[in-house]
C-alpha cells in the first residue's frame, strides 16, 4: 500500500508530464514482459517520448481538468506515453507494435490539442509519417514533373536538330 505522500508525489509527477506535453497516449500494456518493456522504454526515449506506468486512480486524479471532454475508458494495466511533439508519442507506440510482433500493446486513447480523444483518433495520428518522410515525399513529387519536362525538352531538341 502506498503512503499518501507517495501518492501525491506520483500525481504531481504525472501532472507535470501531462502539462509539459503536446500529446499523451494511454497505453494498455497487459501481458508485456519486463524485458520487452525495457526495450519499449529505450526506443521511446530515442524517439523523444516519455513513458510512465501508473495506477488508474492516480492517473485519473492527475488528468482531472487537464483537457476538455471525457477521459476515454482505460481498461487493463495503463501507462502513458507523452512528448512535446504532437504526433511522436502515438507514432512511436504504433511503430513499436508493428515492429515487435507478438507483443501485446494497445492504444486506448489520449490527449491531443487539449482534448481527450479516443482510440480511433489516436490511431489516425499514429499512422501519419514523420516530418522527414513527408518532406522527402514532397521533394520527390516536385522533382518528378520537372524531370519529365527536361526529358521532353531534350527529345524535342533531338527532333529539331535532325
UniProtKB/TrEMBL annotation:
Where on the tree of life does the source sit, at the highest rank?
Bacteria
Which is a Gene Ontology cellular component entry for this protein?
Answer: ribonucleoprotein complex
Q: Which Gene3D superfamilies is this protein grouped with?
A: 3.30.70.1730, 6.10.250.290
Q: Which Pfam families match?
A: Ribosomal_L10
List this protein's GO terms for biological process.
translation
Query: Keywords in UniProt for this one?
Result: Ribonucleoprotein, Ribosomal protein, RNA-binding, rRNA-binding
InterPro entries annotated for this entry?
Ribosomal_uL10, Ribosomal_uL10-like_sf, Ribosomal_uL10_bac, Ribosomal_uL10_bac_type
Q: What is this protein called?
A: Large ribosomal subunit protein uL10
Instruction: Report the source organism.
Output: Candidatus Nomurabacteria bacterium GW2011_GWC2_35_8
Q: Which gene encodes it?
A: rplJ
Amino acid at each position: 500500500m502506498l503512503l499518501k505522500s507517495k501518492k501525491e508525489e506520483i500525481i504531481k509527477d504525472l501532472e507535470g508530464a501531462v502539462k509539459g506535453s503536446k500529446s499523451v497516449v494511454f497505453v494498455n500494456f497487459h501481458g508485456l514482459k519486463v524485458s520487452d518493456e525495457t526495450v519499449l522504454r529505450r526506443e521511446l526515449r530515442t524517439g523523444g517520448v516519455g513513458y510512465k506506468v501508473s495506477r488508474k486512480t492516480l492517473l485519473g486524479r492527475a488528468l482531472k481538468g487537464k483537457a476538455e471532454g471525457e477521459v476515454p475508458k482505460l481498461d487493463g494495466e495503463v501507462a502513458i506515453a507523452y512528448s512535446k511533439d504532437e504526433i511522436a508519442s502515438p507514432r512511436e507506440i504504433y511503430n513499436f507494435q508493428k515492429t515487435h510482433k507478438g507483443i501485446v500493446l494497445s492504444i486506448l486513447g489520449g490527449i491531443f490539442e487539449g482534448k481527450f480523444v479516443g482510440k480511433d483518433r489516436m490511431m489516425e495520428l499514429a499512422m501519419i509519417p514523420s516530418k522527414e518522410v513527408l518532406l522527402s515525399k514532397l521533394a520527390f513529387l516536385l522533382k518528378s514533373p520537372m524531370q519529365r519536362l527536361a526529358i521532353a525538352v531534350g527529345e524535342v531538341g533531338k527532333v529539331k536538330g535532325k
